[in-house]
Amino acid sequence: MSPDLDDPMEFWGSFNPTVGRCPDGHWRLLARVTAEGNVSRLRLADIVLDGTRLVGVRRRGVALAPDEAWERNGGRGGVEDPRATWVDQLGLFVLTYTAQGHNGGRAALAISEDFQHWRRLGPVHFAYLPALAHDINMFPNKDVVMFPEPVAGPDGQAAFAFLHRPMWDPALGLPAGVEDPRHGIWVSFVPVRKVAEDISNLVYFGGHRPVALPRYPYENFKIGAGPPPIRVPEGWLLIHHGVSQHVTEAPLPRLDYAAGAMILDAEDVSRVLYRTAEPLLAPETQLEQAGIDRHIVFPTALAEIGGRCYLFYGVADRHVGVAELRAEARPDSPWEAVAS
């Protein structure tokens, strides 16, 4: 999917999609479309298939626009970078997205029964934890994704878990125990019993703890979650993005966004068992390297369609790309066992 230059709503780009299979059996995506002036909306589109091969999209209407005050920043802002998770226990799609308001990017949630009509639950609220000696709500937060089924929370009770990426500001001081200011992946929890009482409680996150920080050269600047995690025999597979910094002749260093992966422990999702020391997908094509200061492959959705596992990703903050993800035995496996 590429931007329709005749449509002012997506003149700056159509990228960073999430995907879902609707009750009518059709696969659809929600793409971030950005108008001139940097105003983003979420546009619905049908995925067009030729057998099991993805060949394009048919555009539909806007599913979410920056209609709430906390999604707007003057004439800019918007709703960005959606990730949708189907949660069997709730019978709902849960959409996590970034609301670009006056205080920068803030995580927000919406829910839907059909992937097409969404009801906002509102912005996420992070509980104050005395052990951190800081209020996480003071910092912008992006790349929020939800696990599709309950896991063990910090108290051992069933909880819905969310990965997220706090964007620390050293000028405000770092939370207690945080020594590396680079942006990394954290996890927070919402007790299942609280959500059973009221679905609106899904936005009240607690039990925050770190999961992963930058580790390898392709992610030496920062990392963040990609698509929602999926259950595999080894634990939870998380495709993530890693950002590396490169000095060039340009005034500012170039940032390269690539896709890597890690396996999280099924019993403790804050524990990383394996990580890829090299990227699974890197910006190599002309379109992916189109930016002067950024070369971007930004993974946001993972779906099994017709027996094939497709990774959807943003291309240079401009297009939607897709790659096929395969499990193969390789002598040069990029996986490394780690202890987090």
Automatic annotation (TrEMBL):
DNA-binding as UniProt keyword: no
GO molecular function: glycosyltransferase activity
Matches recorded under Gene3D superfamilies: Glycosyl hydrolase domain, family 43
Keywords, alphabetical: Glycosyltransferase, Transferase
Domain of life where this protein originates: Bacteria
Database matches in Pfam families: Glyco_hydro_130
Family (UniProt): Belongs to the glycosyl hydrolase 130 family.
Name of the protein in its database record: Glycosidase
Organism encoding this protein: Actinoplanes siamensis
Highest classification ranks of the organism: Bacteria, Bacillati, Actinomycetota, Actinomycetes, Micromonosporales
